[in-house]
């Protein structure tokens, strides 16, 4: 029986669900054999030992573990950041700020930049993580924590939700509070214009204007698809504050949308908005 069992498990080694289903099917069909056999308990124990050895010696991951291994396999990106170790609580606060101010995400502590699992090395790292979200982050946050035991190595997953109303600031080495944004797989200090846009996100009473500067901006976008703040300011001959006010207003009323191209903040028409609506006064 043992060679047959091992062969079927070996063939199904890439799918733990199949292995578990086979175990259930085999046990249910052999239940009478177990009950009639004087050594039924030993037979069952032997079979269960095969299952345990199989999972231990193969590359198969249990269903719960597959989730975290898949995250690591995808590498660092807009929503995932690896931290080999926690040596500075402020760095964790920066990552939390960036995720919260962008699209949300998760930090995996105990994973190197290349995806190799190193595990959390000391209990002190847990305290430093707590300090990051309580002392060096404003406003405070209580993210969700998940502790994963991956073959004896502990990886801490910190899940950061996207902020709907607040702008999150992290304290730097000089005790200055700065907001961060996630661009691709890096954390960056948020441009001042982006903070203005965030503050206006839920503001009501902003009206669409028909000034020369706004018409110039929309004309530029119709010709170039997207523009940078400096391009608009130079073309429309407006000040920094005027450019910020116009761009942030148009984003707030869903005429424009912003995005990052490499590290440059750019603006384009929002989905569903047609230039004819503006120029025809609809």
Name the strands of the widest sheet in spatial order: 1-2-5-4
Main structural class: alpha+beta
Give the overall average pLDDT: 82
The largest pleated sheet is described as: 4 strands, mixed
Query: Low-confidence parts lasting 5 or more residues at pLDDT below 50?
Result: 1-14, 52-59
Helix content: 40-55%
SSE pattern, N- to C-terminal: HHHHHEHEHEEEEEEHHEHHEEH
- CATH superfamily membership of the largest domain, which one? Schlafen, AAA domain
Rg over CA atoms: 28 Å
Quaternary organisation of the protein chains: single chain
Share of β-strand residues: 15-25%
CATH domain fold name of the largest domain:
Methyltransferase, Cobalt-precorrin-4 Transmethylase, Domain 2
CATH architecture of the largest domain: 2-Layer Sandwich
Distance between the termini: 78 Å
SSE order and pairing:
Layout: H1 2-11, H2 16-29, H3 31-36, H4 40-57, H5 63-74, E1 80-83, H6 89-101, E2 105-109, H7 124-134, E3 137-138, E4 144-150, E5 153-160, E6 169-171, E7 177-183, E8 186-189, H8 192-199, H9 212-224, E9 226-228, H10 229-236, H11 240-252, E10 256-261, E11 264-269, H12 275-279
Parallel strand pairs: 1-2
Antiparallel strand pairs: 2-5, 3-6, 4-5, 6-7, 7-8, 9-11, 10-11
Helix pairs in contact: 1-4, 6-7, 8-11
């Amino acid at each position: 029986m043992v060679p047959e069992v091992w062969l079927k498990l070996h063939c199904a080694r890439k799918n733990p669900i199949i292995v578990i289903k086979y175990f259930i099917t085999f046990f249910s069909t052999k239940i009478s054999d177990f009950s009639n056999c004087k050594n039924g308990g030993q037979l069952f124990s032997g079979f269960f030992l095969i299952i345990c050895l199989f999972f231990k010696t193969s590359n198969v991951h249990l269903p719960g573990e597959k989730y975290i291994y898949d995250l690591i396999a995808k590498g660092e990106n807009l929503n995932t950041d690896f931290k080999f170790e926690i040596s500075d609580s402020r760095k964790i606060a920066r990552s939390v700020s960036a995720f919260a101010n962008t699209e949300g995400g998760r930090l995996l502590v105990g994973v190197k930049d290349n995806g190799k699992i190193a595990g959390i090395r000391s209990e002190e790292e847990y305290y430093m993580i707590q300090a990051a979200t309580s002392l060096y982050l404003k406003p405070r946050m209580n993210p969700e924590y998940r502790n994963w035991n991956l073959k004896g190595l502990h990886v801490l997953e910190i899940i950061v939700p996207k902020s709907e109303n607040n702008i999150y600031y992290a304290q730097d080495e000089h005790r200055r509070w700065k907001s961060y944004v996630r661009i691709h797989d890096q954390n960056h200090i948020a441009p001042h214009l982006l903070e203005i846009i965030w503050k206006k996100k839920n503001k009501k009473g902003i009206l669409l204007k028909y000034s020369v500067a706004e018409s110039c901006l929309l004309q530029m976008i119709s010709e170039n698809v997207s523009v940078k703040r400096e391009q608009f300011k130079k073309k429309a001959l407006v000040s920094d504050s005027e450019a910020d006010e116009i761009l942030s207003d148009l984003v707030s009323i869903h005429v424009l949308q912003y995005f990052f191209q490499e590290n440059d903040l750019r603006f384009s028409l929002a989905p569903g908005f047609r230039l004819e609506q503006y120029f025809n006064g609809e």
